[in-house]
C-alpha cells in the first residue's frame, strides 16, 4: 500500500509541476523577472530557467523595447544575476537604449539615474548604455541624476550615481 501511495504522490507532484511549468512558460518576461525576485526558491528557479531558455516573441520584444525593457533585469537585487539577465535580454534583442514611450521617453539609464541607483547605473554603462540620449523634456541621465542629488543632497547613492555619469560623460567627450 505504501509503495502505491509513494508512486501516486510522485505522479501528483510531477503533474503539478508540469502544469506550473506550462503556465510559467506562457508568462511575459516582466512577470518572469518579478517571479525570480519574490517567489519561493523552486518557483523563482523555474521562472529563471524559462527566461533563460525561451525566446521572446516579436510582440514581447516590441513591448520590451517600447517600455525601456532593459530596466527589468537591472532591477534584480542580486548584482551578478542582474548582469546575467541583462546580457541575456540584450542577446535576445532588447535595446539597452530603448526609450519608454509612456514615461517621458526615459531609457533604463534615465530611470537608474533619477532613482539614484549606482549599481544599476554602472551596469548599464558597462554594457553600452548611451549617456547622451535626451528624454521628452530634453534631459540626459546626468541631468536627472543631478536633479535627484539636488533634492536629496545627503543621499550618498545619488551622489555616486552622479559621479558615475559625470565620469562616463568625461570619457565620451560629450
Automatic annotation (TrEMBL):
Repeat positions for ANK: 104-136
Record keywords, A-Z: ANK repeat, Repeat
Region Disordered, annotated ranges: 147-174
Biased composition (Basic and acidic residues): 163-174
Superkingdom per UniProt: Bacteria
SUPFAM superfamilies attached to this UniProt entry: Ankyrin repeat
Protein name: Ankyrin repeat domain-containing protein
Source species: Noviherbaspirillum album
